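Next comes a concrete protein, fold included:
___
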Amino acid sequence: MTRTVSLLGAAIETGASQPGCLMGPASLRTAGIARALGSLGWAVTDLGDATIAPQAPMPHPNPAIHHLAETRAWIETLAPLAHDATAAHDLAIFMGGDHSISAGTVPGVARHAASLGRPLFVLWLDAHPDLHDLTTTESGNLHGTPVAYFTGLPGFDAYPPLTAAVDPGNVCMMGIRSVDMAEQARIAELGVEVHDMRAIDETGVLAPLRGFLERVEAANGMLHVSLDVDFLEPGIAPAVGTTVPGGATFREAHLIMETLCDAGCVTSLDLVELNPFLDERGRTATLMTDLTASLMGRRVMDRPTRRFIG
């Protein structure tokens, strides 16, 4: 039976401070993401790009916050689209745009999971935990808020109410290496599973990832993966406005994706913070496409696997 995958773009850059992310979906399409997935036997449906109407400014007591009205509008637009894409396809891929896209995609996927009576787990591959609420962010960049929002934390009266929240205990963060003090306190308070780059240096990526995937399988969970370009070492992925040295290597990233494929529990994927304006001859877009292909079945040497994503 042919497996189905959908592609949905969201040209969001209002959550970040540096322009260019709005070109991310087009860059991934130019890099051949649909062709790569089709060559692996997937039936690919490109749903195009979501859009929002111009928004009137929305004030907030935190004067640092910018583009709050646009962020709210994106959440309201993306959540139902993410729900429908996940319900209609074996895998849904959401192409950003900055990481504020996840404030819309994850709640939409969580609503679909809840309708099936299954818990949603989130693998957050990022240099940042994105655990600020609207009162703690000092930069005002709302791409730093999605995890706090979709886990149902307070401080989001200006965002749309959640239909289904993700249990913070179902979130695993890997690659973290830039954490603000407010986020450190929140991680300790919530008990979010975090494997920063020092832990990865000490243990490798495989042991903690397998432990997390065992929890997903034991709960009959659905898994959403959110891959930020800045999870990767900037030397191999320069096209991001939030460069943080010391990220995942090429081989570590592919190993994570191949292991996720073997597990067979991934149902949705974010590809975010790709800023082609900062890229070098499309190398980051090509790498993100290759990593997605590894998630969905591509191997250098084909080995028997338990099952593919489904």
